[in-house]
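Input chain follows. Return structure tokens only.
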Amino acid sequence: MMPASLPRLDHPLVSLRPLLRADAPAWYGYLRDPAVVRHTSWNLDCLDDLLADFDAYESADPASPLRLAVVLRDGGQLVGTIGLHTVSPVHRTAEIAYDLSPAVWKQGVGCAIVTAVAHWSIEQLGLLRLQATVLETNAGSIRLLERCGFAREGYLRHYRLVRGMPGNFWIYARIAAVP
């Protein structure tokens, strides 16, 4: 499901645009880096594993996942993705997920994209709850979520398989103000 408008992102290095199938090789390229996936539940063996997700991203179903490309303003190179999955139009909830190439780590990109997409999800898409799950070992993502206004709500034991082993995750949420 691709909405009519995209989140507004005011970061000097990157911008957001719809993710395209043509982005898959660049996306897979940095997701093969063990440092990128070490503290995530990504489990990719080949490019085809990633390509399988694009049918869902291109669906018009309001409950389908949404993924945006994070690209360099200068040259348009893909350096990350961010999106929503586990979307519930009935309950107006979704889970945010993101990944970045090491080329843009520690430059404020993560906080900028999460803040922009969180605000847009609540203000433009009308979500009441935006949640995030983060592997307990992912200290960087935990700090990022907390800086972006997400509150820790609980601990999920054996929540997702992480390369074949049960992983423990923290759950965070950002809640819309209800009038």
